[in-house]
Amino acid sequence: MKFISALIITFVTLFSTISLVSAHSSMLYPPVRGHPKNPNAAVQDFACIITPLNGGGGCDPKPFPCGGYPMDKKIVTTFQAGQIIDVKFFNPNFQNIKTANPNNDQARHNGGLCEFALSYDGGKTYTVIATYHKTCPDIFFDNWKVKIPDNAPSCDNPGKCIFSWSWINAVGNREFYQNCADIKLVGNSTEPLPIIDITRANLPPLFKNIITPEGDPKNTGNAKGSGPLAEDVKANLALTIGPDSSKPGSDKGSNPKNKGSKGSKSKPSKSKPSPNNPNSNNGSNSPDTTRKSNSSPVTTPEQDSSPVPTPETNRSPANTPNQGSNNSLDGASCSTNGAMTCVNAGSTSEFATCDNGKQVIRQCPGVLVCQQSTPTTIACNFSKTR
Ligand SMILES: [Cu+2]
Questions:
Q1: Can you tell me whether residue 232 is helix, strand or coil?
Q2: Which of 202, 224, 222 shows the shortest CA–CA distance to 212?
């Protein structure tokens, strides 16, 4: 990676040179480390800020996390817990969106999977707080809404508090993109957010697994697309994370109801591959690899700390997160339209929704596991805390 901020070439000049070819997009707001549009960036990487971590287009590979760019000279972006942010993207070929031709090439690779996440440790661990499927990114829309969780604790540790955007494209080379914004967070909670790892893929040898997310149904290319899917916006704004209403002992035993019997941190026994160690998660077994993009508004508005009706008993430790729909519920007939049933309450992400007489299997996003809230509703909840 080479930083050429010292060159005399001006931002505009250089980017108009680049604009002869197709150029990827980057996050624009919140302002990104290493970005020419970020006045507080410690370096400004005119040439390679928009390339994936894989490198390419004359750019060397960049390290994970955050492309290796140093933290900003000055951190000026402050978000409050509960705040809703409109994320914006940037593409050097489109200096003026208002007059830009929507059919021009923004190298969006037909969109794909965008995840927005907070990190409190400089990008080692993450809590995904918003996900956009199929249509993201797209510079022609400036309302990619992301909600900072109500229970996000404060963070004022320069270099450690990060708002991350990662993108896995739908079409083209399998690549992993990430931009990081240095931020400060102001919250009330004293409890850390649970880890909800970003999808780590398409960056071998670090993230070995290769995935191809679904793309924008509106077009197959690089022109202006459909914009944020309504169901994604809804889910992102409704998403609540972690034990919330019940913070008493904060730790395990005290409020098992929020975690099912998952024994969220009985580390000794059931430790699964452990997303706790970011390095161990080279993606090969990331739960995200099986995530389907049809994750509609699954994320039910918080598990209202309701009486999780003894979900357990069927949590067989041997029962590893099974894939997609190879289970007996899939396609089974059902009678209560809209009723949702966890496939393995408390232990895997899948749940069945009765859709016009037939069970359709879906999955909680990320590493969330399904918990049965009432006989006909479920909540996607977390089992680990940072
Ligand atoms: Cu590309």
A1: helix
A2: 202
Burial class (CB in 10 A: 0-12, 13-18, 19+), 317: exposed
Residue 364 CB coordination number (10 Å):
25
pLDDT tens digit sequence for 187-229: 999 999 999 999 999 999 999 999 999 999 887 689 999 999 9
Ligand 1 mean position, distance from CA 144 (Å): 21
Domains of the chain from N-terminus onward: 1-241 (2.70.50.70)
Average pLDDT, the chain: 76
Contact 71, 33 (CB under 8 A): yes
Question: Ligand 1 centroid vs 23 CA: distance in angstroms?
Answer: 7
CA dihedral of 139, 240, 230, 106, whole degrees rounded to 10: 20
Evaluate if residue 20 carries a pLDDT over 70: no
Q: Return the structure tokens found at 137.
A: 């990114």
- The predicted pLDDT at position 243 comes to 67
Question: Ligand 1 centroid to 294 CA: how many Å?
Answer: 25
| Look-up of token digits 């400036």 | 142
CA of 55 to the centre of ligand 1 (A): 10
The per-residue DSSP string of 51-116 comes to S-TT-BTTB---PTTGGGPPPPSS---EEETT-EEEEEEE-TT-S-GGGS-TTS----TT-EEEEE
Residue 373's pLDDT band, with cuts at 50, 70 and 90, is confident
Alpha carbon of 172 to ligand 1 centroid (Å):
7
- 269 pLDDT higher than 60: no
| Alpha-helical segments (H) within the chain | 11-18, 230-238, 267-270
- Gap from CA of 19 to ligand 1 centroid (Å): 13
pLDDT, tens only, 325-345: 456 787 888 887 667 788 888
Residues making up the chain, counted from first to last? 386
Ligand 1 centroid to residue 21 C-alpha, Å: 10
Contact yes or no for 169/177 (Cβ under 8 A): yes
Protein residues near ligand 1, an ion, with CB under 5 A: 107
So what's the pLDDT on residue 16?
A: 42
Residue 274 has pLDDT above 60, yes or no: no
